[in-house]
Write a structure and sequence with these properties.
This protein has eight helices and no strands. Helix content is 65%, strand content 0%. With 182 residues, the chain is mainly α. The N and C termini lie far apart (56 Å). It is elongated and about 75 Å long. It has helices spanning 17-35, 42-55, 65-90, 96-105, 117-129, 133-143, 149-156, 160-176.
Amino acid sequence: MDAEAQPGPPPQADESVAELYKQLQAELHRFGNSRLKRGLSAQDMVQEIFLQFVRFRPQEGIRDTRAYLFKIAWHIVHRFNRREAHNLERMSYHDSTHVETVADSQPELWIGDPCHELAFREQFNHVLGELPGPVQAALLLYKRDGLSHKEIARRLGLSVNTVTKYIGRAVLHFSQADWSKP
């Protein structure tokens, strides 16, 4: 939103928010569907547009309310898509079959060798400590506690897709760690 936009006066009677919503919601919904990448629904976007419209109307009058609402829509879509692209860059995606293959091919990651259990535990904790907290939690709940992705998602308040990504990221991190050090 513009820095000079301030909470404005209530809408005028001839241009009530309810009337505007009825007139433009279908068009704004199509606008959102055609431009949103994923995650945010067009209906949520339309609601956000009208919330911002009510909260931050300029003090001076609006010449073209339709254009003003579409400018808000464009900013919301742009901000959401930019944030989504940034999140995708930070996440690494892995097919769950790949995750299972890597995890099963390296059982030494999950079962300690009795001869070197203390050294292994220290090394394991060090590698685990390099991961963010939620990723650690997802991995441990999955491998140590045997919970399903759905159970982990419910327990951590995440989506199942996010849990899958976290576990894949952790397994990849463990598979790339240097385990030759004592």
